[in-house]
Amino acid sequence: MSKLDVNDHLVVVGNFGVYQWLVLILNGMLACLFGMQMFVTVFTHATPDFRCIQESVVSNSSVQYDNQCTLNSSTAEVTIDCERFEYDTSIFTATLATEFDAVCGAAQYVTMVNVAWMISEGVGSILGSYICDR
Q1: What is the model's pTM?
Q2: What does the pLDDT look like over 88-97, one tens digit per residue?
Q3: 121 in a domain, yes or no?
């Protein structure tokens, strides 16, 4: 029995030709496109800097603090929860956090969406590979 030599078999079936290069390039481009969907969470699940806006604290103007969920009233020793938030839109114009005010007490919802996204990616890849093999 002779030893298996890959080069001998390549001579029989043919070398790495134009078709193989075309398949390699197209599959590589396709893999890059599918990989980009993993980066979408960087942009859609980000929480930008926010400011608490509470118009009832100061009647003429709104008091703003960076990344704080409560305001300390200047007239009384009371901490007031924020009613509205204003977001820094210099980097991201709209994210899940800005659209649904998912900051402070609701910040865990963005994490839950990210977990659901990853679970669906895993289940989809397993089911998709099973369906493709049929």
Answers
A1: 0.59
A2: 888 888 988 8
A3: yes
